[in-house]
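Hi all, long-time lurker, first post. I run a small reading group and we've been trying to get comfortable going from sequence to structure in the token notation. Rather than ask abstract questions, I figured I'd post a concrete chain and ask someone more experienced to write out its structure so we can walk through it together at our next meeting. Sequence below, copied exactly:
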Amino acid sequence: MIKIENLSVAFDGPEVVKNVSLELKDGEILGVVGESGSGKSVTALTLMGLVAESARVTSGKIYFDDTLLLEAGKPRDKALYRKFQGDRMSMVFQEPMTSLNPTQRVGKQVDEVLRLHTQLDAAERKKAVLNAFASVGLKEAETVYSSYAHQLSGGMRQRVMIAMAVILEPRLLVADEPTTALDVTVQNQIISLLQDINRKQHNAMLFITHDLNLARRICHRIAVMKDGCVVEQGETEQIFNQPAQEYTRRLIEAVPSRLKKRKSVQLSSEQEKDIVPVVQVRDLSVFYRDAGNSLFGRKRRHCVVKNVDFELYPGESLGLVGESGCGKTTLSKAILGINREIEGQVLHNTLRPQMIFQDPYSSLNPAKTVGWQLQEPLRARGAIDGSQEMTKADMEEAAYDMLRRVGMEEKYFHRRPSQLSGGQRQRVSIAQALITHPGFIVADEPVSALDVTIQAQIMELMRRLQQEMKLSYLFISHDINVVYHMCDRIMVMKDGRIIETGRTEEIFGAPREEYTRLLLAASQDRNKD
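-- Answer (accepted) --
Happy to help. Here is the structure in token form:
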């Protein structure tokens, strides 16, 4: 059905996609995997006719059945693509919050697809949209129809995007990292939904991901991309069990797995009694107040985190896991003093605790250089706690030293975040958090947006720096397999409460709570199924 022949695409500089050839049959799911920057998304966007105007197709052709959609050396036929887009081929993007219009109710946005491509009247279109919402598992379809994107959870927004993509039952569905930002249970629901749609509509699917476990679970065939080229493709199990290329083997080996031996710092009960914790949390409840006014001018308080108790010890990594919305990030903000609407106690025995965020691109200042941003915590430290100010030369030397510690060359000192890769930006975020030697770090999903090889590098970097700088981590993640390798103990959170705490081997080997067993089952390694 889809045939891509020797496709090469360039922007201002060299080609970013080089002689890519792929074929996709009716009903087939083809996975495209590879590191960030390997050309996966550019290939998909070119196929869909959505690649930037600055892109040049330097060689190749793209066919949909017998229709020539695109040919090198000829301008893109926008009128032809409009006939196919939405109707015969559609796309689900990675981040629905940036793909959906924040100023329009989501029902109206899905309705637009029908208005452009069908002759249905308004009542018929609304009925079709509600049916599409129900078919993708949105139970209160009427409520969702009249909601804005920000009023829905991440999983609900992704379901809306899928409903929009499949409402006309297109023969081709392109899914570009559709589950990256979702927790493990919602991720499983979305994958099951896409598989169900594939079976019912018998559509073809191009599934782009850096998560090889997901690719193995959903795809019939896999194409591996590196530096803009397809280096290997074949049946899924053949690729995983007998990879022909060294690069493919490295990708597979980099996937966090419970079958791999983990490193751990274990303290006995007697040792814990003698050691002063880095952080002590006692009967902590965290609240939010309504945004608007309520009766008598007072805003109602909502309890989001309820009666949490735990300790974190020097040199220890404590994992915090649970589904989206359970209160993980809210708890971390309260521990760091960002949210002061609390009851209970948070006792710190370390100075200047810091946070590593999930998305360094949005947490780093795009207008400032790496060197400036690394020095900013040092400038702020002197202003806040009255410590003796460092000279400009001292701060620069500290920034260069921290850059070297996180494995980056000095040339990056004068670059801006937009000039760095995703892994490099995360290294800068880690360096920024550690430059004041805080002792305690909250790492909030620090590797979830990274491809598997970069993820493995960042995890190894965090372990090395933990030993060198005697750090303690509160490590928040929805990826159970990442937590398995990074953490000595694990706390499981559900509906704002810590329902289970234990050493990593205990939680994985003999979980006490049914919810914990469900989380573990949802993230089960494919090769242990």
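A couple of things your group might point at:
The chain has a mean pLDDT of 88.
The chain is about 40% helix and 25% strand.
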